[in-house]
Amino acid sequence: MKPTDQLTVSEVARRSGYASSALRYYEREGLIAASRTGGGQRRYQRGVLRRLAFIRAARNVGLSLDEIRVELDQLPESRTPTKSDWLRISHDWHRRLDEQIEALQALRDGLASCIGCGCLSLRQCAISNPADVAVDRVPGGGAVFLPPLLRQPTAQD
Amino acid sequence: MKPTDQLTVSEVARRSGYASSALRYYEREGLIAASRTGGGQRRYQRGVLRRLAFIRAARNVGLSLDEIRVELDQLPESRTPTKSDWLRISHDWHRRLDEQIEALQALRDGLASCIGCGCLSLRQCAISNPADVAVDRVPGGGAVFLPPLLRQPTAQD
DNA sequence: CTTAAAGTTGAAGTCGACTTGAAGTCAAGT
DNA sequence: ACTTGACTTCAAGTCGACTTCAACTTTAAG
């Protein structure tokens, strides 16, 4: 096998769209791995690109790096996710997205009714008071939430 | 007029649902105002509750405090927003929410197609590569994004 | 062999929106 | 007058996900 799976940092950065500092950070966080040259430089295997695409996808869906690590650890080693792995995960992600969408729609619709009703005081306003939307707030402090911003798309060629 | 508009910090905190530290922070940031007693303690006017409700609503829609300050400054002084003020603002918020919803839907639908097509590699995946969704990225670094989490509802009585 | 580009580390900085802590002051009831 | 709880300020801390910096070292080309 050719040096095809001996990608340098800059190459992975370019192809994944992540900054090299982010790659180092992800490695420290245990999300990706790399071997080293004699001199101590990182060399990545091709598979890391798929892993990074997965990470970005998960971030887009709203998962934290901690959650992503758990998800990745569930796929033993570098085992390529099986069809059932992917089914399980994508179903979960789909559900998350649905929840986020529903929360936003409820908020938007509440706003629409506010426009109509002229409740300028916002006192009972569904927008400032979306209690029915943000339920499921876990006692411990966890929560149901809407996603952070949409991350940069992969620059992968 | 009775001391009705001489609310103490703890009272505003209780009725607005914001921590008193948050109220102090908002004051420093120029979002709300308070008068002082001889001894230097804050006394709020009733109107601050409406303002806080507005702030929470705006936060729920995804505005930053900076954006909210601009919005508030646009309403000269403590002028109660007129019908047209509110129409303008709520239209803007509605639009923002629609954008966020559309972005999430595109993401979700891309995910659905991924499940069907079995593109486990995620190479061309719409989820890791939602370029068409996150357009409008301003050159300067601004962006189009999805909202942060849904804030706590007002505890206002 | 030289050189420039690319890579290395650890520590510290950034951003937004607050919270926490320490140390001291005010307001109100008895 | 005393006590207690509410309040004050200013500085620093927090969280997540990275980025930036300084000071070196390795690699590859010429």
The topology string of helices and strands of chain A comes to: HHEEHHH
- Major β-sheet profile of chain A: 2 strands, antiparallel
Structural class of chain A: mainly alpha
Oligomer: homodimer
The poorly predicted ranges of chain A are 131-150
Overall pLDDT score of chain A = 77
What is Rg of chain A?
Answer: 21 Å
General description of the model:
Two copies of one chain form a homodimer. Chain A is mainly alpha-helical. In chain A, 49% of the residues lie in helices and 3% in strands. Chain A has five helices and two strands, in the order ααββααα. The first copy, chain A, has helices at residues 9-16, 20-28, 47-61, 65-74, 83-117, and strands spanning 35-36, 42-43. In chain A, strands 1-2 form a two-stranded antiparallel ribbon. In chain A, strand 1 (35-36) and strand 2 form a beta hairpin. The longest helix of chain A is centred in the middle third of the chain and has 35 residues, at 83-117. Chain A starts with 8 loop residues before the first helix and ends in a 40-residue tail after the last helix. At the A-B interface, helix 3 and helix 5 of A face helix 3 and helix 5 of B. The structure holds a DNA duplex (30 and 30 nucleotides).
Could you write a compact summary of the structure shown?
The first copy, chain A, has five helices and two strands, in the order ααββααα. A two-stranded antiparallel sheet of chain A has the order 1-2.
Topology:
Two copies of one chain form a homodimer.
Chain A: H1 9-16, H2 20-28, E1 35-36, E2 42-43, H3 47-61, H4 65-74, H5 83-117
Chain A binds a DNA duplex (30 and 30 nucleotides) through helix 2.
